[in-house]
Amino acid sequence: MSERRKSLTSYRRVVIKIGSALLVDRGTGLKSGWLDAVCADIAALKANGTDVLVVSSGAIALGRTVLGLPPGALRLEESQAAAAVGQIALARAWSQSLSRDGIVAGQILLTLGDTEERRRYLNARATLKQLMTMGAVPIINENDTVATSEIRYGDNDRLAARVATMAGADLLVLLSDIDGLYTAPPHIDPRAQFLDEIAEITPEIEAMAGGAASEFSRGGMRTKIDAGKIATTAGCAMIIASGKTDHPLRAIDDGARCSWFAPATTPVNARKTWIAGHLQASGELQVDAGAEQALHSGKSLLPAGVTKVGGQFSRGDTVAIIGADGREIARGLASYDADEARQIAGRKSGAIEGILGYAGRAAMVHRDDLVVTGQFQVPQDLTVGEDMRAG
Predict the structure, then answer these.
(1) Contact status, residue 37 vs residue 246, Cβ threshold 8 Å
(2) Tens digits of per-residue pLDDT, 98-146?
(3) What count of other Cβ atoms lies within 10 Å of the Cβ of residue 13?
(4) In sequence order, what are the beta bridge partners of 53?
(5) How far is it, in rounded angstroms, from Cα 378 to Cα 376?
């Protein structure tokens, strides 16, 4: 049995992301029969010793059904009200369904800041670890009741990838309304070819990602590719599979078609995984060809190699490092504030004290605080109307 076709029970820890369209029907509400089937699959995994975490969309979609809100984009306050109602209903549904097999569910609501700020990230990780130690299944969703368009994930694909890296999972399963990655959106191009195995996420793979395939979806294939970058960099494999059938996890084990993304052969350590997974860089450092080569060789970024400083950031903030061709090549924690970085950009490290008046670090970004991310692209912000269609 190949790596990608080995049984899900062979994995130590699995994160399962559930799309809104799978869980909620606009006319009838919660698809309770489908949910029961998924929970039976989860129970089977846990019975074989696999830790399971669930990132469940559906709070806003369910809440708007309960409240009888009309179709179409919601205003921010309407979305947050729908989330407040939907989160209660969603948590109750998961708890009741899992309890059929004697499994306890624990609800965790996260915001972007909970995973971008180091201390809050570690606190959330500790909670997840304790829940799994106690045999519970964490049910995770973005906290839509307090998040705004400027401080939110905007989709649960990338949230699921961050949860996978946070929890130390070795497999992320994205259940969706499509069965995997195609060379083009299959609902648009009938000649689109299915890809069953992706060894590396290249620019060509990124170009294949289409937009949202469902009115409930926030991201579509693009956000799944972003999720794949976050997960595989940390050494976590990823599967994109259809969830339209009952018992979708069992179907994967039975050979259902899906796309498998290989984990990095040399995953970064836990701290660098957190850095690489940041979705919001506070600023940018553009570098010359020599600095880019040095970064790929595992060296620190020195001020001499920086050609331009963009944005406003403080020491310790995450910055994107941009190559001469405009593509992001790395992420790291800045050793200087933006204003200081502008003063010493392009200068030798030995000149720092004379320019700033104190002897700072020789590196603009030290190699211990830096991750080469290849072709990682910062996800484009979604509009509020797109953001708020599903929970």
Answers:
(1) yes
(2) 999 999 999 999 887 787 777 788 788 889 999 999 999 999 998 766 6
(3) 17
(4) 15
(5) 7
